Amino acid sequence: MLNKKTIENVLYAALSTGGDFAEIFVEDKYTTNMKMIGGILEDSISGRDYGVGIRIFNGFNSIYAYTNDSTEENLIKVAKEAALAINLDKKNIVLNLMKNDVKNNNKIITLPRSVEKAKKIEIMKNGYLSAKNYDEVISQVTVSYLDEEQNVLIANSEGLMAEDKRVRTRMAIQSVATKSGEMQIGFSAPGASMGFEFYENIDIEEHGREASRIAKTMIDAELCPSGKMPVVIHNGFGGVLFHEACGHGLEATSVAKNTSVFSNKLNEKVASSVVTAIDDGTIPNEWGTTNIDDEGTPTRKNLLIENGILKGYLVDKLNGRRMDYEPTGSSRRQSYKLPPTSRMNNTYIANGKSTFEEIISNTESGLFAKKLGGGSVNPATGDFNFAVMEGYLIENGKITKPVRGATLIGNGTEVLDKIDMVGNNLKLAQGMCGSVSGLVPVNVGQPTIRVKNLTVGGRKGDE
């Protein structure tokens, strides 16, 4: 990493043309990615990425530059070139960098890069075999492995200097079931902000069987009917609907520009009174947890919606200026090559009072969306379309036969208002979220919820 004197000299150079804030982000990242298809290791890439990002503020505007040459001479040159975008009177600034104490939310026991590659491949093989041997209908299994160690140093002209180590481990198993020319996919992808000890805490073979179970269940399922109906969305990955259709609208990236449906609605009712939503970057060892965000602000638990009332946004430093709002520890980026902005960490709908059994038994008929797949969302309007990876009909208050080809179609704010039952079985699930600052690891989550009326797209009657 960089020494204190070099950091100070670069910050002075960045402010040499009158900027009012400057920041350095140093990243040293080790990554291993492997992919196994059909039980054969097809790809294996390990590498190190090192670089420095320099950001300068001038009021509500910012300039960003980056380089992988971290010599002091080059960093000063890059900082001065970036600063040319500002042409104001130079301010008298005295830097006093003080190293911040960082609370550790993620205990790491075994760094993944200390583990032999053969051991990692062995675990992948176990996951593959459990998925492939589940049933003869499983035609293909793909296993992806990831581990990364990201060391960062963040310093700015306000005197902040902080360091953090982020270690993450994940394995994704995708099973394909084939029957009569039709294919269905099942997926399971556990991950955590943990070292290699992660694999002592999970049963990767069970995740392989789960991926294949979903694929087999759906290949034998009937086509889903379409229409408006009550929809029960299960816990865990069901939270992707809130994340995509509502969570992005609570990020200052869109709120500050008034392009979000939630702009200027603090303390207003935006959801059913049974809905409370939270983003928490401090949950120990969770996939979306860090100790500090990518501006050096400690992560925290942010209350977004409380009993249907909008209570807060996710805010980074620049958009906080625009909104006159305190940063919330939510500024994130994929790498030093991108400037940070407000992003989610571990975002979820909080537990309610209903049991899973009560929600199902109180639903006369409808759809049980046990696991959601991919989808698309218009962040300006909240309109969404999500595929259901695993779905079942609810008939006479009971879950009955599986159905395939279902999609959920609606609007995020309207769905929030139509949630009339919230379970007490909160579960989180891992994913990758894309936005203007790149891909970042996030958790989505919720207990089982019921939306009293939602449009379901289905293919029944098409054939």
UniProtKB/TrEMBL annotation:
Keywords for this protein: Hydrolase, Metalloprotease, Protease
Pfam family, one: PmbA_TldD_1st
Taxonomic lineage from the root: Bacteria, Bacillati, Bacillota, Tissierellia, Tissierellales
One GO BP: proteolysis
GO function term, MF aspect, one: metallopeptidase activity
Organism this protein belongs to: Anaerosalibacter bizertensis
Residue ranges of domain Metalloprotease TldD/E C-terminal in the record: 226-458
Cellular component annotations (GO), alphabetically ordered: cytosol
Residues covered by the Metalloprotease TldD/E N-terminal domain: 22-83
InterPro entries to which the protein is assigned, alphabetical: Metalloprtase-TldD/E_C, Metalloprtase-TldD/E_cen_dom, Metalloprtase-TldD/E_N, Peptidase_U62_metallo, TldD, TldD/PmbA_N, TldD/PmbA_sf
Family to which the UniProt record says this protein belongs: Belongs to the peptidase U62 family.
Chain segments carrying region Disordered: 324-344
Domain Metalloprotease TldD/E central: 112-218
Descriptive protein name: TldD/PmbA family protein
Stored PANTHER family: METALLOPROTEASE TLDD, UNCHARACTERIZED PROTEIN TLDD AND PMBA
